[in-house]
Amino acid sequence: MCVFCHHAARESSTSQCDVPKDPHYPDCPSKVDWMRARWTSDPCYSFYGVDGSDCSFLVYLSEVEWFCPPLAWRNHSSTPSVRTTPSSQVGTGKESLSFMRRRIRRLAVQWSAAARRLDNRLCSRWREQKRILVHVGFLTEESGDVFSPKVLKGGPLGEMVQWSDILAALYVLGHDLKISVSVKELQRFLGVPPGRGNCPLTGRLPFDLIYTDYHGLQQMKQQMGISLKKHKCHIRVIDSFGTEPAYNHEEYATQHNYRTNWGYWNLNCRQFMTMFPHTPDNSFMGFVAEVMNETDKRITRLNKVDSMAVVYGKEPSMWKGKEKFLAILHRYMEIHGTVYYEAQRPPEVPAFVKNHGLLPQQELQQLLRKAKLFIGFGFPYEGPAPLEAIANGCIFLQPKFQPSHSSLNHEFFRGKPTSRQVSSQHPYAQQYIGRPHVLTVDFNDSRQFEDAVHEVMRTQVDPFLPYEYTCEGMLERLNAYIEFFIFCHKQPPACWPPLSAMQLLLAQEGVSCVGSCQVEGLICEPAFFPFINNPEAFTGLRVHCEALEAEVNHIFPAVSVEPGECFLQKEPLLYSCAGVQAKHRRLCPCRDFLRGQVAMCKDCV
């Protein structure tokens, strides 16, 4: 029964139902006209008690939607609420979900220990328990669930690794979780009325936060209808490759040829959460790799085979065209592969390679603990495996891309909402780990490649894992995001990271803020842009402005080289660390960061 319109028919028979002409609700008359003509177009209107009378239209437009003023004869003393069912568990029946369950159980002890350590460091500081919906859109049947059939055949697992760790982290932080892997569950948890999505959700959103992905975001748009705009500040989008502001702003993207299949959601770009900290405009969510105890580290050091290499490539197609440098590697090392096959050895894998087939995680770890080298072929980009190999004491050898790969020159990135230049298979490993654990060379240069193999064989390394990819590091980061990232507000909350961390730079002509901050050993911080979008910032950098204007452009605030015209940003959603344009010098808000926890500044903890 409609909770809003109980007894509406009885009340309307004795009440005035003239359409009000209230200047505070200018759209009310036109919306009533629309309802008169189209109230039968979606069953959700009947669900809310609309029966074709003007009274029912006014009740709906004042209490379900917000286009008409509250009616004096209605009881407004209580706010209807939507009940949700008890929390669902990570489901059964799908191999992808079974994989996630196994991973969560395998890491349970590490998560528990990390939670205790973090709690002690935070001095058991009180944390508000949040009501959180986790909707894993890419695993729903409606999105095709292409991952489940591939789990047992060597398909990509990075997304499932990350989602497993997000679920585990939110749980051990003590939040109230609901988990959805189908559109029906999503409808039930959100309290979606029946119909075609024209009606909004009722009452308050029953969640403080919603974690989803691009598939889930599209499904939420279809199910929530016009309510998505009202509630989108609660959403966090898990986004492997990142979304830049120019692609996120729908109107701007359309007008300036930045529109793609994945962007244009008009979110605050910090609501997009990436697998690696490669895009400062977004937030770094990450995942975790398993950490060895001291006993396992000693055993690993003793068992390392200096002449043993494992190839990063589970699918036969990844091995095509790699014969030349594999032949060089074979002169010095025994090569092992983990390529999936059913009955016949894949012809793409050379005969001198010892192929183990697809290995369970524990057996793969044992293989990596013996190997000295983990070698990438250039694809997949930015996966979790290199970090897991380095954590097991391997050196990662990867190809340098010349020129860098991007949406402009490489099919894989085409259509993704980013212009990022990818300089190697794993830029994070190259930039934040580096030698001796990571070597990045030109595989087309035989001499350079051979020298790198020699360097690997004579270099001794211990297992290494950056703190941000440990359970404790991820918990610390996610806890800070939940506490400080507040995008649903009428008045701006206190800035986080704190302004004490800000360092303002003037970029060189045609250089992005990402690059300008990086040169100084800093990180561009998008949260600081509102505080430098003013004339005083130009003055502080000793920039003389012949003129000062505010425009909508993703590289502003900036100063033109000729004739020294200064520009402020008119659209806050377009504040961009990544934006770059010739003949402009950008104002760049940078900050310091903790080594091993790039999402946090020195004053953040």
UniProtKB/TrEMBL annotation:
GO term, biological process aspect, one: protein N-linked glycosylation
Annotated source species: Denticeps clupeoides
Biological or metabolic pathway of the protein: Protein modification; protein glycosylation
The protein's enzyme class: transferase
Catalytic activity: N(4)-{beta-D-GlcNAc-(1->2)-[beta-D-GlcNAc-(1->4)]-alpha-D-Man-(1->3)-[beta-D-GlcNAc-(1->2)-alpha-D-Man-(1->6)]-beta-D-Man-(1->4)-beta-D-GlcNAc-(1->4)-beta-D-GlcNAc}-L-asparaginyl-[protein] + UDP-N-acetyl-alpha-D-glucosamine = N(4)-{beta-D-GlcNAc-(1->2)-[beta-D-GlcNAc-(1->4)]-alpha-D-Man-(1->3)-[beta-D-GlcNAc-(1->2)-[beta-D-GlcNAc-(1->6)]-alpha-D-Man-(1->6)]-beta-D-Man-(1->4)-beta-D-GlcNAc-(1->4)-beta-D-GlcNAc}-L-asparaginyl-[protein] + UDP + H(+)
Domain Glycosyltransferase family 18 catalytic: 44-590
This protein's encoding gene: LOC114794092
Protein family (similarity comment): Belongs to the glycosyltransferase 18 family.
A cellular-component GO term for this protein: Golgi membrane
Keyword Disulfide bond: no
Predominant cellular place of this UniProt entry's protein: Golgi
The protein's name in its UniProt record: alpha-1,6-mannosyl-glycoprotein 6-beta-N-acetylglucosaminyltransferase
EC numbers on record: 2.4.1.155
Any one GO molecular-function label of the UniProt entry: alpha-1,6-mannosylglycoprotein 6-beta-N-acetylglucosaminyltransferase activity
This protein's record includes keyword Transmembrane helix: yes
Compartments reported by the entry: Golgi apparatus membrane
Swiss-Prot/TrEMBL keywords: Glycoprotein, Glycosyltransferase, Golgi apparatus, Membrane, Signal-anchor, Transferase, Transmembrane, Transmembrane helix
Topology versus the membrane: Single-pass type II membrane protein
